[in-house]
Amino acid sequence: MADTPIYRRILLKLSGESLGGAGGYGIDPKQAEQVAQRVAEVRQSGVDIALVIGAGNLWRGRSGIERGMDRATADYMGMLATVMNALALMDAMERMGLVTRVQSAVEMHAVAEPYIRRRAIRHLEKGRVVIFGGGTGNPFFSTDTAAALRAMEIGADVVIKATKVDGVYDSDPLTNPGATRFEHLTYMEVINRRLEVMDSTAISLCMDNNLPILVLNLWQPDALRRALYGQHVGTLVTA
User: Fold this and answer.
1) pLDDT in the model for residue 1
2) DSSP secondary structure string, the chain?
């Protein structure tokens, strides 16, 4: 195990369900506090951290689309929901003494800063936690793609995909006890095997820019901290 963190700056990608209450829906303040605690551990290690969060706990655009809703409208609603989640995370982190900034790709000056790359980097340099809301600001792109894009814009060393399982498996470990976990995958293996790491646009973006993706269980004690110090945790996706 390294004496110092192997990463200087990370982007943590969270699903909306990470804040969900019973059944994964809504915003549970206790869940937000648990995420904030994990983020606090990262900051205590001296690592810069930014976050992108989804909106599945508040709105699933796919459900609306299946009922005839316009895709762009459904996606914009999802973007607004990510800002609600970002504000919930901000509140939980501020109560723990972390200094945070929420930046939104969809401008809403009363509740969040507009996304400005150089300003985000400056916040990180000052030790602030930056939460990116509003996805990419464009419909037809997922928050996975937003995470890959923002990670490259701020110069992150890795995208950490936080899940409730301890890595990437060849099948669902919750339904198949014999599922095999991968310790390492290449980008092309993820695409060819259609493994649900991130969507294909996000994977391609990371592959084109050689940005590693680490998939781990955020709720496993010390998993995130151990990963920061170079221990083998979860599944690493590289070239």
Assistant:
1) 62
2) --SS-S-SEEEEEE-GGGG--GGG-S--HHHHHHHHHHHHHHHHTT-EEEEEE--TTT--HHHHHHTT--HHHHHHHHHHHHHHHHHHHHHHHHHTT--EEEEESS--TTTSEEP-HHHHHHHHHTT-EEEEESTTSSTT--HHHHHHHHHHHTT-SEEEEEESSSSEESS-TTT-TTPPEESEEEHHHHHHHT-SSS-HHHHHHHHHTT--EEEEETTSTTHHHHHHTT---SEEEE-
Residues 69-117: tens digit of each pLDDT: 999 999 999 999 999 999 999 999 999 999 999 999 999 999 999 999 9
- Domains of the chain in sequence order: 9-238 (3.40.1160.10)
pLDDT at 209 over 70: yes
Q: Is residue 235 a contact partner of residue 163, using CB atoms and an 8 Å limit?
A: no
- What's the pLDDT at 196? 84
